[in-house]
Design brief:
The complex is a heterodimer of chains A (243) and B (200). Chain A is an alpha+beta fold and 243 residues long. Helix content of chain A is 51%, strand content 7%. The C terminus of chain B is likely disordered. Classes of the chains: A alpha+beta (243), B mainly alpha (200).
Chain lengths: 243, 200
Amino acid sequence: MKVCKEFEARISALIDDELSPEERAAVLEHIADCPACKAYWEDLLTIGDILRLEDTAAPEGFAESVMARVKETRQEKKVITFPLWKRFAAVAACCAIAVLGVWMMGGVPNYMEDAAVSNSGAPESLPMQADAAKSGEMPETDGGWSYGNFGNNEPCDTAPGSVADDAECDASDEAAASVIATASDAAAEWVEDNLGENWVSGASYSLSEEQYNEVRTMLEKAGEPFSEIMGNETDGGYQLLAE
Amino acid sequence: MTEMELVRAAAGGDGSAFGELVRLYENKAYHLALRMCGNAEDAADVAQDAFLAAWRGLPTFRGEAGFSTWLYRLVSNAAIDHLRKTKHQRGNVSLDDEELNLDAPDSAPGPQESAEGKELQLLVQDGLMELGDDHRTVLVMREVQGLSYEEIAGKLGIDLGTVKSRISRARTSLRKILLRSGNLSGYLPSNPMDNNERRS
C-alpha cells in the first residue's frame, strides 16, 4: 500500500511540528482513517529513531588525539582567560604587589630575571612541573593533565611579595583587546593560508597585532562585511571570530 | 565538578577540564558528524575540528544555549564546511529533487544482509550517502541536531519551502533504500515482505 501522494509531504511536516493548527488537524484526521498513511507516518518516526540511535562510539584514542592537537594549539597561541575588566584589575594588583614586594625586599633579586625568560611560563617555585612542561610531558594525575599546568593562562592570584608569580602577570598576555567578527570567505581563506587552521564557524583565532591589521585591511579592500570591537590597545591581544 | 564548572574551568585554560568535556561528549559529537558526513574517517576529522573550535571559542562562549547545543552547532558547521570543501573530490552523488538515484550498485546492500545492530547502522550510513549531501544534511540537521525548518533555512541559506520538500524527499528516499534490504521488519512495520497482517 502506498502513502497518499497529496499527504506525503504534510506527514513529513507533521512529524517536525511545522504545520499550522488547521493543517495538523486535517492530516491527523486523515491518518486515523488511512492505514497506508498511518504506516508511512510510523515508518518516518522509526527512521528518526534510527538516525538518533547512538550506537557508534567515537573511535579508540579519539579523546587523546583531540587533546594532542589542543596541546599544540596551546604552545603557539594564547587564549582569552576572563573579561577585560578583571584582567585589568589583576594586572593593576600585580603591579601594586610587585612594587610593594620590591620595596620590601630592598631591590630586584636575581631570580626575577630567570623567571622572566623562562619560556614554559611556569613559576620558578615549581621546577619539576616547569621542566615537564618544557619536555612536553605532563605529570600523571587524572588522564595526564594537571590543573593549572597547561600553559600561561593562570589568573594573577599572586601571594604578596612573590616575585616569581609576577612574571606571569605580563601585561602582554591574553586579554583580547580587539575582535573582528566575520563570516567572510576571504577571512576563512586567510586563516587557512596564514595560520594553517581550519575555518570553523563559532571559533575564534588569536592574532598578532600585525596579523589583525592585515586581516582588517584585507577585508576592507575586498569590501567584505565584518564587525569590530575595539578594546584597550595597550593590553595587546587580538582575535578573529568566525561567524 | 558539574558541567558548568568544567566549562568555566576549560574557558579559563584548564586543559584537564576540557579533556573531561571531550570524554563526556565525544560519542555524541562523533555520532552527529557520522550522520552528516556518512563515513567514519571524515566524521573523526570533523568531530576533532569541532572540539578544537570549542577549545578556541570557549572563552567567548556565553552559555545561553548550553554547552552541548553549542558543541553540536560546531560539529554541524564543521561538517557542512567539510562537505563543501570536499564536494568535488568525492564526486558527490546529489539526489535530484524529483527522483531517487538508486543506480549506485556498490552502495546497495545485498538482500541477505541482516539488519541487526551494527549492520543496521552501516545500512543507514550507506542509505544516507545515497541521498547525496543536500538531502542528507537537511535530514540530519532536523532529526539529529534538532533544528527547526527556519533554523536550517537560515544556516544553509535556502528558503523554507526548499527545506520542507528536501526533508520530505530525503525521508521518502531513505525509507525506500532501507526497505530494499528486506530485513527491517523489526524497525519498519510496513515492510511489504513481512507483517502482512498490518496491511488491510
